[in-house]
Design brief:
Two copies of one chain form a homodimer. In chain A, about 75% of the residues lie in helices and about 0% in strands. The first copy, chain A, contains nine helices and no strands. The radius of gyration of chain A is 19 Å and the shape is elongated. At the A-B interface, α1, α6, α7, α8 and α9 of A face α1, α6, α7, α8 and α9 of B. Chain B binds a DNA duplex through α1 and α3.
Chain lengths: ~200, ~200
DNA sequence: ATGGTAATATACCAATCGGTATTTTTTATT
DNA sequence: AATAAAAAATACCGATTGGTATATTACCAT
């Protein structure tokens, strides 16, 4: 019965997990320390014993939410055989993202964190930017590999496609959430599918 | 020297205009009443004499920011001759939206308000949703008219195109802002241009 | 079992939060 | 110029904010 995690590390993880949805729905400014203590049933002393401040919790929570999403994507991409299928994983995942429990409540953490932090919180912004650029790079890599495998046209603008795919997904999520209509996202994903089809040889 | 606006109406307008950028950058939760009094150099008594509460100011500010953007778009669309050109107005405007003074600081108010309010503030969410659906309808109308004018293919899925265009723009803005790269938005707008080209006969 | 340490809880802080009741000032009408 | 009404300023409210210093508890190695 050995646990690798120390008591503090376990508590830290517990705090992150139980406040993940709160930060992702209410945002950084909208989440208070008492929200955190209420949800975790811990006291301020415990929170501040494991984190420097509220921002530190928010950063850890973003990390958690982001990697949760990334993991789901990564697994499905690994299973896909063709590069077309691999790209289509994004479309499929977000095509019914309302239902998947893989997603933290409150929608895409990248979208939420980016739009709130881009003018207010340099650290959160930096972290969100890194996530976007990593995501972009992953898509570009898939496209390049697809080109090498003669699956995609040789002259595809991988950067443009990657950014457009991300934009369609994030913009689509925004629309779907504010209009309470998953089908709106589905329609946008249809265009994403088209975009992916177009780069095939 | 008669002014149509009463004193109160002028003050109200003044408050809206001088806090427009604050709400659009810091968000609803991130903007405090003291932010408002500091910026306007007015007192709480004056603010609460002209608005019910903070939410009421935020709603008026959104209205202001949104109609400011809408006006720019509307004017340019009116000047465009073909329906293709009219649709391309969106691409052109957002293609250098960082520079245009027509835009409130902090980016697109629809994107900002939607992502913050969708899980927290029903009134702001409702207003943002209305804006998205109005925008969508405007694009759909342009497409339909373009079809009637034999400029666009008769079997175009106007709803899908409209939603995808909005998603590309809003998603592109999010990416550009968080990565501090206007060129990232330009690349996404390139895809938007392609999307518009594709529906032409 | 014990002592040291790690972790959590308690109690408290000044500052700020959104909001209101009241007073003062400004404006418009006569 | 006098006056009533409208608008803005002042002064205040309890509650909550993020954060800290200190006390208490839980844990672990000896």
């Amino acid at each position: 019965m050995e646990s690798k995690l120390s008591k503090a590390e376990k508590t830290r993880q517990f705090i992150i997990e139980t406040t993940a949805d709160i930060f992702n729905t209410k945002g950084y400014a909208g989440t208070s320390m008492s929200d955190i203590t209420d949800a975790t049933r811990l006291t301020k002393g415990s929170i501040y014993g494991n984190f420097e401040n509220k921002e530190d919790v928010a950063l850890a929570v973003f990390e958690h939410n982001y990697s949760k999403v990334r993991q789901v994507i990564r697994e499905r991409i690994a299973q896909a055989t063709t590069f077309h299928q691999k790209l289509m994983v994004y479309v499929q995942v977000y095509d019914h993202f309302t239902r998947t429990a893989h997603f933290p409540r409150g929608g895409c953490p990248i979208l939420n964190t980016s739009t709130e932090a881009d003018d207010t919180n340099p650290l959160l912004k930096e972290r969100a930017a890194k996530a976007v650029l990593e995501w972009k790079q992953n898509i570009q890599d898939l496209i390049k590999e697809g080109i090498n495998a003669k699956e995609f046209k040789f002259d595809v603008d991988d950067e443009r496609i990657a950014l457009s795919l991300i934009a369609l997904i994030e913009g689509g999520i925004m629309i779907a959430k504010v209009t309470d209509s998953q089908s709106n996202l589905n329609r946008v994903m249809k265009t994403a599918e088209l975009l992916i089809k177009m780069i095939r040889v």
